[in-house]
Amino acid sequence: MPELPEVETIRAALDPELAGATVIEAWGHPSAKFAQAPAAIGRRFVSVGRRGKYLLADLSSPPDPHGAQRRTPHTELGPPADSQLVVHLGMTGVLSLRPSRTPGTSHMPPEGDHVRAWWALDDRRTLVFSDVRRFGRLAVVAHGDYSGLPTLAALGPEPFDPMFSPSLLRAGVNATSRTIKTALLSQRIVAGLGNIYVDESLWRARIDPRRRTGLGRHRAEALHGAIVDVLAEAVDEGGTTLRDYRMLDGSSGEHQHRLEVYGRAGLPCLRCGSTLRSAVVDARTTVWCGSCQR
Ligand SMILES: [Zn+2]
């Protein structure tokens, strides 16, 4: 499942590619998760941002059919972004940019690859959203209005935001009686972590993922540093490709070669040499070292 580093890698690649392109045709699978894709028709991509595991593409308003734009003084900033295309890749979602099939004429839906939505652009390319297992979703919303997307609306701070501090992390973890793994997966204490990077962060901070008791100040500082470092390293390497995740150009991330604990159950701990354990913690397969994580 794409987590923050994978979504950030896609965002950074999409932003320069989409900026300035206008959606001229679009299609979404009729299920509620994808049906809003055509609401972006006539709108121009301004920039592509991210919150947690959500891509947030700012769209400018369509030109006024009555010529109101000509009365508005031209500014270098262009028209204000007034809506957003929100995309969550779910477990198996992939975004790709492909040459439009019939340049200059009507765009036909791209075939195959479990296509759930597409947006044909005025530069003869088509943004395609494929999703094998259909846990992904998209929406076109008024800018910043996430009332229909409660998970996005309730996200905790971004891990690279200075607002995300050791004391905030400690307060969030200590306010719940659930395991620390579940608390970190909730997205409410900090946004963007999933199964891989929670296990990696807890291993690096020497914290048992099943822990239900609160963290002291020093352990909270260690966990805060581990989360920020683990995510930053994974972003630098283009994310982790285990199965479906690909970068925009179709290539794999590189961070799967650097994972210290995820996927290594039964192998020696890289810190103390003990055999790494694996168990299901709150429905997620979890790997940790029983000797040096407490
Ligand atoms: Zn160990």
Q: What is the tally of helical segments? A: 7
User: What is the level-2 CATH architecture name of the largest domain?
Assistant: Alpha-Beta Barrel
Largest sheet: 4 strands, antiparallel
CATH H level of the largest domain: which superfamily? MutM-like, N-terminal
Rg calculated over all Cα atoms: 21 Å
In short:
With 294 residues, the chain is of the alpha+beta class.
Walkthrough of the structure:
The protein has 294 residues and is α+β, with helices and mostly antiparallel strands. The chain has helices spanning 4-18, 68-71, 150-153, 166-174, 180-185, 195-204, 217-236, and strands at 23-28, 44-51, 54-60, 81-88, 93-99, 115-121, 125-131, 137-142, 277-281, 284-288. It is built from seven helices and ten strands. The strands form three sheets. Strands 1-6-7-5 form a four-stranded antiparallel beta sheet, with no helix packed on it. A four-stranded antiparallel beta sheet has the order 2-3-4-8. α1 crosses α7 (217-236). The longest helix is centred in the C-terminal third of the chain and has 20 residues, at 217-236. The chain is elongated and about 60 Å long. Mean pLDDT is 91; it is low at 68-75. Zinc ion binds next to loops. Residues 269, 271-272, 274, 289, 291-292 line the site of zinc ion.
